[in-house]
Design a protein that fits this description.
Layout: E1 2-8, E2 11-16, E3 28-37, H1 42-46, E4 61-69, E5 81-84, H2 94-97, E6 112-114, E7 117-119, E8 126-129, H3 132-135, E9 137-138, H4 145-149, H5 154-164, E10 172-176, H6 180-191, E11 196-201, H7 204-212, E12 216-219, H8 225-231, E13 238-243, H9 248-256, E14 258-266, H10 279-284, E15 288-291, H11 296-309, H12 311-315, E16 318-323, H13 327-335, E17 343-347
Parallel strand pairs: 10-11, 10-13, 11-12, 13-14, 14-15, 16-17
Antiparallel strand pairs: 1-2, 3-4, 3-8, 3-17, 4-5, 5-9, 6-7
Length: about 350
């Protein structure tokens, strides 16, 4: 089968790899119809996260049709259209029972194979899904593949972020970073009753999309985010901030926009060794800082419901729908943050 594979830092290949196949009785085999390129994929791409084996199939955003199931699979059948969270989960361990499915005791991350152990990713023609009964979710009939795909990662992550930030009705919310996760965080913050969202970025196309998603947008290069937030909060600052970049600079910017007693939710994947704000500042300003991998499987039903309601709006987030064969070049352009590149969805030919 064809797949996008990891070769080295900033080096991928579109090549033939062995077909995915069932290994355990609880597996399902999914023929991929939509696979996303995510900002998190850029961490191994740029070498910020290391350990990935050469030849690992990339990608953790997966939607497709079941073509084969193991003997223990009872919840799904061949022909079902399904979406998967970016981690598998058993549905029965302590962490799954409390809704922290991303920390399942048996869970694995799609697209991470290290020292020969792990799970290949979604940017391929076929994907093996372990623990299929608890991991997969059926996609509502008629919902666009690319929009439904968002529920398997970034739409669920944005839902988690608004909850993690503690967004309440009437809050002023700052969103730092208007990539796909940040744009969806605007929508989920408004869904929870935020009176206004101030969205901060530097890329004009992203700022324009932030306005379409309901935010007041401001560039940190040509505008003044602090002045904008203070103007809208009687000088206090934002009640909540959602950081959707994953850099120390973004953490610092988000914290600066908060009022005393504000809360900051980190959705960006951070690889730096130290937090950009100190314990003393958290204490002195009574801040709350929260972060962590999203338990996507817990949020998928809620995310799919939102995707159905806002299908037309959410489809605007998808800037490129490309064949899998163009995936290597798509990574390069997405990684360079080229103007007009937001969410990229790949489909095998």
């Amino acid at each position: 089968m064809k797949a996008i594979t990891f070769q080295d830092i900033e080096a991928l290949a579109y090549e033939d790899v062995p077909d995915a196949e069932l290994v355990d009785p609880g597996d399902a085999l999914v023929r991929v119809t939509a696979a996303g390129i995510c900002g998190s994929d850029l961490h191994p791409y740029f070498g910020r996260e290391r350990g990935l084996d050469v030849g690992t199939v990339m990608g953790h955003e997966l939607l497709g049709e079941i073509v084969e199931v193991g003997s223990d699979v009872t919840a799904f059948a061949v022909g079902d259209r399904v979406v998967a969270p970016f981690t598998t989960n058993c549905g029965a361990c302590y962490y799954c029972r409390i809704g922290l499915t991303a920390r399942c005791e048996r869970g694995q991350l799609f697209g991470w194979v290290e020292n020969g152990s792990g799970l290949h990713g979604a940017q391929a023609e076929l994907v093996r899904v372990p623990l299929a009964d608890a991991t997969l979710v059926e996609v509502p009939e008629g919902l666009d593949d690319a929009v439904a795909l968002l529920a398997g990662d970034i739409l669920s992550t944005a839902t988690f972020g608004a909850e993690l930030a503690g967004v309440e009705p009437g809050d002023l919310v700052a969103v730092v970073g208007c990539g796909p996760v940040g744009l969806l965080a605007i929508r989920t913050a408004l869904e929870r009753g935020a009176r206004e969202v101030v969205a901060v970025d530097s890329v004009p196309s992203r700022l324009a999309l932030a306005e379409r998603f309901g935010a007041t947008s401001v560039s940190f290069e040509t505008g003044d985010p602090m002045a904008t937030v203070r103007e809208r909060s009687e000088g206090r600052g934002a009640d909540c901030a959602i950081e959707a970049v994953g850099t120390p600079e973004a953490t610092r910017a988000a914290a600066d926009l908060l009022r005393l007693g504000g809360s900051l939710a980190a959705l960006g994947v951070h690889t730096e060794p130290h937090l950009a704000i100190s314990p003393g500042e958290i204490y002195d300003r009574n801040l709350t800082y929260s972060g962590g991998r999203c338990p996507v499987r817990h949020y998928i039903p809620q995310a799919l419901a939102l995707a159905e309601r806002d299908e037309t709006l959410l489809s605007e987030l998808i800037s490129h729908r490309l064949p899998l064969s163009e995936g290597v070049d798509a990574y390069r352009r997405f990684a360079a943050r080229e103007e007009g590149w937001a969410k990229v969805v790949l489909s095998p030919e």
